[in-house]
Write a structure and sequence with these properties.
This protein is mainly α. 50% of the residues lie in helices and 6% in strands. β1 (104-108), α5 (118-133) and β2 (136-140) form a beta-alpha-beta unit. The longest helix is centred in the N-terminal third of the chain and has 19 residues, at 8-26.
């Protein structure tokens, strides 16, 4: 199983399995978590799609984009029918302000500053949130891979 983490497609397959188990075991309490896991799985799957997309069906990790899309659509339908507004309240929310923990926000935002203030607004907004909660903020504004779609830079960040 550890070898799966060595490649994006293996990590994607692992996240899909985790999402499935989460919903299977915890039911409606895990719909949103399952959706987030599937979204992350999609990012990993698409990470090398341009290079290896045609070979996915030959991989040892039995997964494909249709399977991922169907799972996401199914959970999204369940989430939208949730009368609690897509979320289930927990008895006592966890307190993530433990000073011994080192929690950080990593984000990628790269817009043309002469056309829109979105980069500075994003930095300001996320900086205020991180400061309020005692988190470290890593707001990446320069692309790691200029030839790739921005989501790839977000994943790398």
């Amino acid at each position: 199983p550890v070898v799966a983490l060595g490649c994006p497609l293996g990590a994607s397959a692992g996240l899909q399995e985790l999402a499935s188990l989460c919903v299977e075991v915890l039911g409606e309490r895990c719909i949103q978590r399952g959706l987030r896991l599937l979204h992350l799985s999609k990012l990993f799957m698409l990470f090398q799609f341009n290079d290896y997309g045609a070979w996915f069906s030959h991989s040892r990790w039995q997964t494909d984009m249709n399977q991922l899309a169907q799972a996401s659509q199914g959970l999204n339908k369940l989430a939208r029918s949730d009368v609690n507004g897509y979320a289930v309240a927990v008895a006592e929310p966890a307190d993530f302000r433990n000073p011994s923990w080192n929690i950080g926000l990593v984000t990628y935002c790269n817009y043309n500053d002469s056309a829109t203030p979105l980069t500075s607004l994003s930095r300001s907004n996320k900086g205020a949130y991180a400061s309020k909660h005692g988190y470290t903020l890593l707001h990446v504004e320069e692309p790691y891979v200029t030839q790739a779609h921005p989501w790839m830079n977000k994943l790398i960040a």
